[in-house]
Sequence to fold (221 residues):
Amino acid sequence: MANFEAHTLPELPYDYSALEPWIDARALEMHHGRVHRAHVDGLNAVLARLDPYLSTLPVEDLLKEIDRVPEDSRSTVRNHGGGHANHRLLWSTLSPAGGGKPSGLLAEAIDEQFGSFETFKARIAHIAGNLFGSGWLWLTLTRGKLVTYTLPNEDSPLLVGERPLLGLDLWEHAWTRSPTEGRDGQLEAFWNLVDWEEVGNHYQAARDAAAKRQCQQPQCA
Ligand code: MN
Fold:
């Protein structure tokens, strides 16, 4: 197992109390220090028993190549690998200075495809409200278009080769904001914390990757 590199829990780029009042410090500590850590530990434990090649992959690539995982371990990798990738994306797209609106190319794409930022948020509220059980709401760039949808549990868009720009954790453990309970409270907290600059960076990176895939000619590299 010489080339086994364990996945690690990323440090949060802010203090546990930094996202209050939208996420209280105890909830964030539990979510990062226990829930996310359990995914990292669970992923490392299952990978230690599998082909060492799988341990050399970044978690995003591991999810893209989920079919290479033996069937009896696949759901464990799917849940813990997804849980690790999903939460890592989540922490990076929240900020104590977040909220407000997207800008630049991302804002233009949202206006063009959804009509306005307000209708985009309303669509997300509608889709999130229809999720049965636990899961995440995703914003992806799919065939050049912004797409929103939910997936159950810790399933990642990476499993089907799509690149998430933003993920909203709709598990009950994620948000403890009161007095607004339920999905409305989760969304209110989320909109007040989203770091749109970072989401814009993910959008730009996804566009660049798509353009690179489309253009196989050396002169457009
Ligand atoms: Mn979570």
The CA atoms of residues 2 and 35 lie 28 Å apart. The two ends are 37 Å apart (CA to CA). The first helix runs from residue 25 to 47. The mean pLDDT is 91.
